[in-house]
Amino acid sequence: MSAPITQDVLTIPRKLPEGPINLVGLTRAQLRETLINAGTPEKQAKMRVGQIWQWIYQWGVRDFAEMTNLSKAYRAELAETFVIEVPEVVSKQVSADGTRKYLVRIAGGHEVEVVYIPEENRGTLCISSQVGCTLTCSFCHTGTQKLVRNLTAGEIIGQVMVARDDLGEWPERGAPKDETRLLSNIVLMGMGEPLYNFEGVRDAMQIAMDAEGIQLSRRRITLSTSGVVPEIAKTAEEIGCLLAVSFHATTDEVRDKLVPINKKWNIAELLDALRAYPRLSNSERITFEYVMLKDVNDSDADARRLVKLIQGIPAKINLIPFNEWPGAPYERSDWDRIQSFADIIHKAGYASPIRTPRGEDIMAACGQLKSATERARKSRKQIEAETRAG
Ligand code: SAH
Ligand code: SF4
Q1: Region 35-45: what's the mean pLDDT?
Q2: Are residues 71 and 196 in the same domain?
Q3: What is the CATH number of the domain that holds 138?
Q4: What are the start-end ranges of the H helices in the chain?
Q5: How far is the CA of 291 from the centre of ligand 1 (A)?
Q6: Which domain holds residue 301?
Q7: Together in a domain, 59 and 164
Q8: Which of 5, 41, 102, 145 is within CB 3.0–4.6 Å of 132 for a Cys-Cys bond?
Q9: What span, in angstroms and rounded, lies between the C-alpha atoms of 259 and 109?
Q10: Are 142 and 49 part of one and the same domain?
Q11: Probe ligand 1: pick from 291, 294, 318, 330, max atoms within 8 Å of CB?
Q12: What pLDDT digit, counting tens, does each position of 9-38 carry?
C-alpha cells in the first residue's frame, strides 16, 4: 500500500518579526492596516498606500528617503518601522545560451532557485513557490528534497524584483511597459507546487498584475500545477492567470507512479476540472506539460491516447525532453521518438512544441532545480526503491 498523500508542509518555526516589518508582499489591504497600526492617520492611509506601493513596485525603490512625494518627517517615520526587502542573491550563473540562474536566500537561511530565460520576443522568469516540494514526482529533482516550506508572498514577488534589479529594468532606468520588456512573462514552474501555497502565490501574482505594481498582463503569467484539482477553479477566480498542468501520462497506472498526486485526483477528475477552466478569449489554451521518458510514457499509443483524453479542451501540448539530474531513475526519450510523438499530436490539430532545454550547462532546466544545500541527499538506490514501491 502506498502512503496517502497529504499536504504535510513541515512548519519550520519562522521568527516573529522582532525588527522592522518588511512591506514587500503585503496586499494593498494589509499595507493599509500596517500603516494605520504604525500611526498613519486613517484618512490618509489610502493615498499613502498608493504612493508607497508605486515607489516599491513601479520604481523599484528600496529606500524610504527616495520617496520624494512624502514629507521628510513621514519618510523618517517609515524608515524607523519598516524595511523594503527582497531575497538576497547568493549566486548567479549565466549559461552559454543566455539563461540566468539565481540562487536566492530567504528567511531561515533557506535557498530557492529562480531562472531567467531570454527569447527573441519575450523574457520569461521561472519562479519558485516553495522551498522543495511535498509531492514526490519520481522524475523531478525538487521532489527529492526533504525540507519544505511555503514562500511568503513577499518572497515570491521578491524573486521578480531581484531579477529586475539584475536586468536593470526599473522605469527610471528606462524599462518599457509592454512586451518589449526584458522580463515580460512569469511562469510558476520553479520549485514547489504553487497550488499548495495558494494564498502566497495569489497575493504575489496580484502585485505582479497590478496596474500600479509590476504591471504584467494576466495572459503573461502561467501557473503550473501537478493537478491539485480543488484549487484549479479557485485559480481562475482569484488569480485569473493561464494554467499549465503536469500531465505526463495517459493511464492512471503510469501517472500514479510519475505524478503520485494522481492517486488522490485521477486523470478523469483532473480533466473535468480543466474542462471547466474558464477562458476570456479563444486564444487562451491550457498547456499540457508532458515529460518524455524513454520507454515509460513515450509510445505512439500514448500519443494517441493523449489526443483522445484531451478532446474538447483548448490545449497546447508542451513536450519536455527529460532533463537528467545526478541519480535520476529515468532517461530522456530518443529524439526521433519525441518527434514521432509530436507528429501524432500535431496531426490531431494541437500545437505540440518540443521545449528546447535551456541552461542545461548550469542545471537550470525544468525539474532540475534544487537548492545547493539539499542537493544529492537521496541516493539513486533510494529513489529507485521509491519508484518501484510507488
Ligand atoms: N510543481 C509544479 C510546477 C513546477 S515543475 C508542477 O509540477 O507542475 C515545472 C514542470 O517541469 C512540470 O511540468 C514538471 O513536471 C516538469 N519537470 C519536473 N522535473 C523534470 C525533469 N527532470 N525534466 C523535465 N521536466 C521536469
Ligand atoms: Fe513538486 Fe512539480 Fe516536482 Fe512534482 S514536478 S515534485 S509537483 S515540483
Answers
A1: 96
A2: no
A3: 3.20.20.70
A4: 28-37, 42-53, 72-81, 153-167, 198-209, 229-238, 252-258, 267-275, 300-309, 335-347, 380-389
A5: 8
A6: 88-389
A7: no
A8: 145
A9: 29
A10: no
A11: 291
A12: 444 444 445 679 999 999 999 999 999 999
